[in-house]
Each structure stands twice: as C-alpha cells, then as structure tokens.
Amino acid sequence: MGYKNTVGVVVLAGAALMAGASLVPEDKQLDPAWVESLTERGHALDRGVVGSVKDDSLKYIGMPVGGIGCGQLYLGGDGKLWLWDIFKSNYRREPPSKQGFLVSSFVLGGHYAHPVAQGDPYSNSNGAEVEQGFLIRTKAGTKTLDRKGFSDIQFRGEYPVGRVTYAEKGYPVTVQLEAFSPFIPLNAKDSAIPATVMSFTVSNITDAPVEVDLGGWLQNATCPYTKDPMLGKRRNQLVAKDGTVSVFSTIEGEGIKDKHGDGSMTLTLLHDTNEVKVAGVASLADPVALLDQVKPLNNQPAVVKPLDEMLVGGLSAGFTLAPGESRTVDFAVTWYFPDYTEIDALKVVHRTQDSRKLFRGRRRFYSTQFESAYEVAAYLASDNKLLLQQTRAWNKTWYDSSLPVWLLDRSFIGLDCIATQTFHWFDDGRPYAWEGVDSCPGTCTHVWYYAQALARIFPELERAFREEVDFKPGIGFEPQTGLVKDRGDYHAKGKEAVDGQAGSIMRAYREHQMSADDAFLKRVWPNVKKATEFLIQKDGDGNGLLEGKQPHTLDAAWHGPMGWLSSVYLGALAAAEAMAIEVGDQDFAKQCRTILDRGYENIVAEVFDGEYFIHKPTEGVKALNTNKGCHIDQVLGQAWMHQVGLGRIIPKKETVSALNSIWNYNFAPDAGQYALDHVEIESAFRWYAMPGEAGLVMTTWPKGGAMEAIPGNKLRSKENPKVFKGVGGYFNECMNGFEYQAAAHMVFEGEPDSALVEKGLAVARAVHDRYSPERRNPFNEIECGDHYARSMASYGVFLAACGYEYHGPKGHLGFAPRVKPEDFRAPFTTAEGWGSYSQTISEAEMAAELAVTYGRVNLKTVKLNPMNLAVKTADVKVDGKKLKTKLVKSENGVSVEFDAPVSVAAGQSMNIVLR
C-alpha cells in the first residue's frame, strides 16, 4: 500500500527507501493531477500563496514589506505588521536560545522545522514590539482589521504586494488591503525607501448608503530598546502639509541621540484630504477606541512623554459610500533609523569583531535621500503617487502571464531577502550581504553566485557587488594573486572558494549583459582577467579539469577531478573568453578557448561514468568526497551557460543523461524520511524537508561508495548516529538554492513540454509545496539562516521556462519558451526597461509581441523559436511602423536583425510575424 502526502506524491511505505541500489524510487508515483498542475495556470491545485483564517493558514505568513536594505518588517496573514526589525542594531538582542539564531541556522533545521507564528516570542526577538493596527467603523459597529475583528479573512501574496480581504456576515462593507513598499525593477533607489504602504479599498455591499470611518494607530517606537527616562523623551506631532497628514514621531534629548542615534517614524494618510474627512490624535489612551478619540487637526499641540511611557498616535478618514460604491484610502508607515548602532556587547555565532567593525560608523543607503521619516512620507505622496503606480504596474506585468501562478510566486519570492536583514546597502553605495538573516557574513561568493533574481531585477546592485566587493582591491580582491576572497573583507587574510571564484567571473559577464553599454566591462575586465588566471594556475596541466585541493560552498575542500567544480571552472573560462573578445584581448580569448576545448572532451573522458558525472578523489588524501555518488551540482557550469547564453561546455547527450540521473537517484518523494533512514551516510541534523515532504537530495550513492564519502563514517550507524560530529557534506539534505539550479537546468535542456521540462518543474514545485502556509512561512526560504540568499536561484527556473536570453550592449533579446509555447505570455526585463512578451504559433505563422511598460528597450536583434514552422519572411512593426529587417536562421531558432538600432519606449509595442 501507499499513502499520498501533501504534495500529491504517492509514497510506497516501507519499500522505497531501502539502502542499496534503490536509495530513491526511480518510479516516483506522481499523482497525475499534481503533474497536470505543474503547467496549468488555473488548475485546481494551483492556488499560489494563499491563506484563510478559517483553515488556520494565516499564522505563519510573514511577507517582507519594507524597502531594499531598510531593515525587516513583515505583513502578517491577517494584515497586521510584525517582526519590527527596522531600528538601529544589526545584531540580535538575545542570547542564542531555543528561539534564537542557533535554532534558525543549525539545530534541527531551525525555523524550517520549528516555524515561527505571528505573535510567538521570536517574532519580537529581532526587533521591537510595536503597538500598531487599523480599524473600521460603520453603523454595524467597529472592527479591527485583523483576525480578532473579522471571521472571514483571505490572504493572497504576490511579492512584493500582499493582499488581505476582510468580510463578515451582516457587515455592510468589505475591505481589501494592499500592502507593499515601493518596488520598481531597474530603479533600486526608489525601491529602497523605508516605508510600507497600507492601501485599503472599502466596498459597500448593501443597497443603502454607508458612512465609514477608517483609522490607524502607531506607537512612537523610536529608540525601542531603553526605557531610561533620564536619557530623553518621545514626541508626537500632527503635521498636515503638501496634501498629506502625518503623526510624526521623534525623540528628544542629546543623551539618547548620542547613545542611540537619531530616528523618527510616521503614520501618514496619503489620500487627498479634500475627498475625506480627516481627524487625528497625537496621544491615544486606547488604540481600539481610536475613532472616539481623534479630533479635527486644528493645530493640535505636540505630545511629549518620557521613555518609560508608551506614546501612540492615530489618524482616521471619514467618507460615505453609495450603494455598490468602493473607495481606496492610502496610509503609509515610514521610518528613519539609518545608523548601525550596537545595542549590546553580546557575541553570538558569526558576530565577530571583524563584522562589527564593518558596520560601525556606516549608515543605510536611504540616509542619502532623506533626513527624516516625514521626508519619506512626503516623497511617497509626491508626483501623484507615481511610486505606488509603478509598483502596481510591475505586479500586474509579472502576473499577466500564461505561466502557472505557483511558478510565478516561487520564482520571485526568493528575492524578498533584499528587504530583510540579509541584505544591506550602505550610504557609500556599497551593498553588503549575509548568507541569511545575520548568518554567515561577508557577501559570500560561493552562496551568492547561485542567485539569479537580483541581477535581472536590480542589475545596478549586482554590478555594485562586482565593483565594490568582488573585484575591488582591499575589499574582496587580491590583485597580486587574482584571488576573489570568499567573504570579501570579513577575513583579514583572504580565503579561497573555487566555485565562488568561478561564479564571480560568470557573474561579471552576466552583469555586463544586463548593462546598456560596455562601460562596466571595461572597468572590471583587468581584475576579471586576473581572477581567471588564478583559476588557470590551478589547472597545472591545462587539461580543463581541476584536480588539486578545491574549497567550496559545502564547507569543505575536496580533492581530485569532478563534474561540479570542473564544470564551473569551464564556465568561468567561457565567460572570460566572451569578455576578452568584446574588449579585444584576442590572445587571452584564445588561451581560454584552448583549455575549454580540452575540458569539453576531458570532463566526459575522465569523470563521466556512462550515466552521470562522478568525483575521483585523490588517492591518499583523507577528505570529504562524493566518489561514485550522484551529486546535485555535477553539471552546474553548464547550467550557468544557459543563464548567460554561452553555448555548450559539456556535450548535451552527457548533460541530459546526468540531469535524468539526478532526477532518478536524487528526487525523493519522502526526502525527510530518507535523511532519517540514512544516518549511516550522514547524521540528519538540519531539516529543510521534513518526513512526508518531497525534495531533491544533495547526493546519493546508487552504485555504492557512501561509506567512503566521509572519513571515519564506518563508526557511525543508525543505532549510534551521533558518533560523527563534524560538518559533513550536507549529503542528506534538501537545500532550496541547489534544487532550483538543477530544476532550471532541466527546463533549459528540455524540449518544450518534454519529460525533462516536467521533471524540472516538479523539483521546483516540491520546494513550493514545502513552503505552503499551512506548514511554515511561504516567504522565508531557509538554509543556514532565514531568508537565505541562495534561494534567488529560483528566478533561473522562470528564465528557463521563458527560454530567455539577453545581451544589452549588443542589443540582443531572445525567447524560446519551454512551457506551452503555442500560446505563451510572460514578463521580461532588460538593462533599461521591462514589459511583457507574448507569442502564438499556428501551422501558418508565428506572431510575437514585445510590449514595454517601463523605460525603454534598445534592440538590434530579436531571436525566436518558431518550432516546426518553416519561416521564410519576417514582418516587424513598432506602433504600426514597419521596420527593415534581415532574417537569419540558426539550429535552434531564427533571428530578426534590424537595419538600424530600434528603441521601444514605455507604452509602445514591437510586433513580429514570422511566416
């Protein structure tokens, strides 16, 4: 018999997970309905990220709704804001404990195995407890806009926009909340605003007029970590100016400012005050009785209270709704806490003096734009709320797609880490990042090179990472050796990671492609070349394989040739060759190509076992290894080539065989139980897939060799699993970022709607299902820390589904959809603009459209895949004006070349018809 788990996978109880040749069942017994949902946008199982108060699926939801590098603030499933980590300190305020950092990162999988619910003690351990909320009053009574006030609450998360709907039987209105921070792809500056917009749409569902009062309150939480009245006071002032009304919360007293820095907050009504009746109060005795305490503004005096007393202010908007009428009222919470100030001297894991020195004296980037929270609010309200409009335009563009909602959701959610304490943007323009929230410092190269989302959405930030960190002498780069240090300036003495080094080179090429011209490449090329030479020196015989000591992201150094690290080395050579050609360094391009050609042959001859790529450990070296095992990253270098359009560094036949092997041997319908059942391989001590959950396991040994992977593991057994206490190889784990890169590669290598595409989507969908709101926070993908950066590899799955390729300086854009190409639509980004791409294919013609929503898209060529259509002509128009073109056919599509460069601006469309 079997049982069906919550991802729609039938698990054969007791038989599928035996040690030996059948470590993972080759026949996955996937539920046909679940398989169908992988590609169907409106399938019954394809609900996306939703939750309901009725099924108790709101409690774990925490969507980041602050700006880039502005701290961390969650939108809860019921619309309440929680986890207020927007204040001064970058360090946690409590010792490691059951609810602290160690649980989040290491012990038993932390917040994956033990998810945090809104209102749990941990929800305030990283920030302050802030009294805040909204409520509504009609003739039927007053209700708070949360789970206490309404019995029918529905949540829908479309990062960066969260939507919450409130209804109650017998209540005359419904309310929909849209909550977000300004988020505009290609505009990082305006997406790094310390603000959360709370936009409420109230609808009269009766046949009579309804008078409505809608209000909100916010505690003055400036300097929340002290209550010493001798240090200063808190001050609330109602400010009505420039079409906005704010409760402006500040702090007074030189003592408090000297110790904790300056700071301010606002609760602001962004709505046109001529359309609603506005009232406010600077000090509330009872927030829930807000609407009985607010008064007309009329120059109300400021209220000042000592630090040991709570100070709360509020605003309300009154209006009348005709039968069936709706009205939208926009509030905003803004803050200004730009200084990194140590609150205590506590040292916990990874909080060394080196990392403290890096933050000391720095400010958040938003301090270069604003001097108070009120200035933030005024900026939000300016230009007819253009920032809100452009955020909504992106949200609409992203979801106006033929791709399934689950894929659109999961592809983008990983990017939310930049709106948490994982990511920091300093006032000197330098970005800095942990691996996860406050975990593992130094903008780690061997983690961040898996990420694909940031480079395509905010390319200026990834360019800054390359220029201000990886390839900047004194920070991440050693010009005398060419080493790209694995953690930037965190370590005084540089440390090496082979994969991170190669990844930085490949990323440099990607960042060049996401630029409008070649200026970035010219700036970084000298150091990129040195970094490539650093890797070439490790290939002593120039055979295209790395064979010596190879430190990498699995916190170890492996020895001997293998598919994984040699493939990323070849990928770095391919990227370096492409860059060398573009800057005119033909000699170096030729050197890279010579080694590439050797590696292309040798990687198959030396480490392909006929099914997949293995690791040949160096004899006599006692170190971690995968030997005959099937490793998840074995063809990662080729996966990267698809991301940057550089062709093959590993033959397709062997690559596809390896990917099918990863599916056959590593995709476990019950990955959590697999880890428990195979402690003889490695102790299960971190959980990213619980028993009953499917996932792609890091390494399995279908042909033996597991006992040789970890030196000394013969001492370990199921009966005595704690003998081994080292780091191990993370072999039994499911880690999202690794799974996503393999999934993306499967989709890229597969023909449209093929079995390999299906397998890649299934891998990504399994991760999505593991993060359903019934189980844990769907917006917090966890590895070694919350909001783990490697999960931004999920965007690569989206790019693969689109068959996207782009080169900004060359003006090249291409699409070859792998999912239902006959009727396809999806968003796209370029260096200077974004919009929607759509295509239809019939027996007679292919019609494609590029509709630009923001900025402009500059093009010289567009490459398409008309499938089996025999194309003879191309008709191209921009806003009805026909363009002169040349049609060039290739093995995997056709390219339309324009006689002169074409610029398609926002509001314009390019239409292409191939016949």
From TrEMBL:
Coiled coil: none annotated. InterPro entries: 6-hairpin_glycosidase_sf, 6hp_glycosidase-like_sf, GH116_catalytic, GH116_N, Non-lysos_glucosylceramidase. GO terms for molecular function: beta-glucosidase activity. It comes from the Bacteria. Residues 62-383 form the Glycosyl-hydrolase family 116 N-terminal domain. Residues 499-796 form the Glycosyl-hydrolase family 116 catalytic region domain. It holds the Pfam family Glyco_hydr_116N. One of its GO terms (biological process) is carbohydrate metabolic process. PANTHER family: BILE ACID BETA-GLUCOSIDASE-RELATED, PB1 DOMAIN-CONTAINING PROTEIN. This is Glucosylceramidase.
